[in-house]
Amino acid sequence: MAIYELRFPELGEGLHEGRIEKWIVKPGDVVKEDDPIAEVENDKSMVELPSPIDGKVVAINVEAGTTVVVGDLILTFEVEGAAAESSVRETEQAVAEPVQASTQVAPAADATVHAAAIQATGVTAQQSSSSQEILAAPSVRKFARESGVFLGNVIPTGANGKILRADVERFLAGGDHEKGESAEAALIDPSHATEAAQIASVASDSVTSRQGAALEERVPLTTIRKLIAQAMVRSKHTAPHVTVLDEVDVTELVQLREELKPLAQERGTKITYLPFIVKALVAAIRRYPALNATLDEDRQELVLKKEYHIGIATDTERGLLVPVVRHADQKNMWIIAQEISELAARGRAGKLGPNEMKGSTISITNIGSAGGLFFTPIINYPEVAILGVGRITEKPVIKQGQIVPAHVMALSLSFDHRIIDGVLGQQTMNEIKRLLENPRLLLMEV
C-alpha cells in the first residue's frame, strides 16, 4: 500500500481557486475513480470534485468552507502501490507550474520591517523585490510588472498569503492604500511595523462592547462574491458608463400577457414580461448593431456581433448570476419564456454549468421584481450595454388630450460611452419603447 496526496486541480480554464463547500467522503471511506468526493464552489457554479483514483480516504486536509488554490493539498488516500506511483507522477505534473511559481510569503509585519531595513541600506524596494519572497503566479507577476505595481505593497487574499490578479486590480483601483501608507511609515521609523501589526491584529477581531457582546461580524467573501466584485470593478473602471432613463406605457402589454396566461399554463410554463423585453431588445439592437458588440482595445476595433445571446441577470442566495438565452433572435416567445424559467431555476439551485453563463452579447437586469424603479446598471463587461427593467406602476398619463390611467414601466439603459453616444443610446431606448407599447409588433419578430 502507498499514500497518495490529492492536490486541488484546475477545474476549468483560468479557474485557479475554489471553495470546498462540503465533503462527501470521510476518513475510512473507500472510493472508486470518478466517485464524487466534494462539492466545490467555483466560477459561479457548484461542481462535484471527482476522485482521480481508487483508494481509501486516510485524511481530509482542509475543512469544509475553506478556499483553496490549485496545488493545495486537500485529501490523502491509501492506494495500491503501482497505481499510487503512477497517479502521484500525474498529479505532480498537473500542479508543477503553480507550485514552482510560488515561494513562502513573509508575514505583513516582517515585510514592513524588511522594507525599513532596505531603506536604511539604501536599496530600493524595486531592487529588492526578488528577495522579499512574495507568493504570486508568473502571470500575476507579469500583470503587476506591466501595470507598474510593486507586489510588496499589495495585500494578498489567496490561500497561504498568495497574491491574486484581483488583488493587483484592487490595488490599482485604490483599495490597498492602508498597506501602502503603513509601509511608507515603516520606511521612516521601523517601530511603526510593530504598531501596524498590533492594529491589524485588533482589527481582525470582532469589535465587542464593555459587556462583551459582539458589535460586528466578519463573514469571508465567497468565491462567487469575489468574482462578482472583480467583474464590477473591471467594468466600472474600464468602460465610462452613461445611463438614459425613460418610461414606457405598457398597458397593452399587460393586457396581452393576461390573455396569454391560460395558454402558457397549458404549455406548462409561466409567461412573464421578460420574454417580451428580450424580443424588444433583440429587435432594437438589430436596428442599432453598435450595442450588440465588444471593443477590441488592442486593435482599436469595434467587433459587431452577428449573434444575439441575451444574458439574464438572476438573483440567487449565492449571488448575482447571468445565465444566457442563446440565439434569442431565432426563438419565439414561448421558447424564450421556458428557457428563462429553466435557467433561473437551475441558477437558484446552483446547478448552472459555466458554459451556460458565458458568451452573452448584451444583458438585461430586472430590479422591478424587488420593487425598484430607475437605477444605473453596471455593464456586463466586455459587452457595451445593459438594459435595466424597473417595476410597472399604475399612474395617470395623457392620451389624445385626456388624462387616463395607464401601466407604466421604468427602463434604464447603460452603455459604454467610448462606443455609444447619448443620441444613439436614446434612439435604442425609443425603439424598445415603441415595441413594448405595441407588443403585437413583437409577434412579427422571429
Automatic annotation (TrEMBL):
GO cellular component: cytoplasm
Listed EC numbers: 2.3.1.-
Residue stretches making up the Lipoyl-binding domain: 3-78
Keywords: Acyltransferase, Hydrolase, Lipoyl, Transferase
Highest taxon, organism lineage: Bacteria
PANTHER family per UniProt: DIHYDROLIPOAMIDE ACETYLTRANSFERASE COMPONENT OF PYRUVATE DEHYDROGENASE COMPLEX (PTHR43178), LIPOAMIDE ACYLTRANSFERASE COMPONENT OF BRANCHED-CHAIN ALPHA-KETO ACID DEHYDROGENASE COMPLEX, MITOCHONDRIAL (PTHR43178:SF5)
Full protein name: Dihydrolipoamide acetyltransferase component of pyruvate dehydrogenase complex
Biological source species: Ferroacidibacillus organovorans
